[in-house]
Amino acid sequence: MKTLTAFFLAAAACYPQALDLKHLERLAGKAAESTNVTLDGALLQLGAKFLSAEKPDEARVKKLVAGLKAIYVKSFEFDKEGEYSEADIASVRNQLHAPEWSKIVDVRSRKGGDNAEIFIKTGGKDIGGLVIIASEPKELTIVNIVGRIDLDELSDLGGNFGIPKMEFQRTPKPPSKDDE
After folding, report:
1. Pairing verdict, β 115-123 and 33-40
2. Which one of 76, 96, 117, 172 has the fewest beta carbons within 10 angstroms of its own beta carbon?
3. Model confidence, pTM
């Protein structure tokens, strides 16, 4: 029985997990505008079927989506500052513990209050998930992408499936033997 329990615990630790964002739902009542995107499992793959393999931009998104298990986006725009608290953000951040999760971007603006954090979930050589926390005085957006992600292709996902457009600098590919 202990061996079986250990197996299921290990399998659960390796399987990408979505964050618990239910506590943020209360912010929708305070927000002037709110967006809630939930694309998991078959629904995400169904959406990818509408992308054309013939159009280069859509083909790249389709390839990226093939490795994903789910996409969750919660975004809130408020009429005035102070409608959400640092505790709301901390409740998300507290789910992103090392060694599984690593913060790879942390942008803080004391002057404007525009902050951004990006966390990745690592497991072996692949990235198994990504979380973006973007906060401004009157706006809060949380993006949780569950599944295998190639960071070089991630910017292609921006602007699709309710994910904000993100600009990442692509890693240059090393020259191949064919280039020589």
Report:
1. unpaired
2. 172
3. 0.73
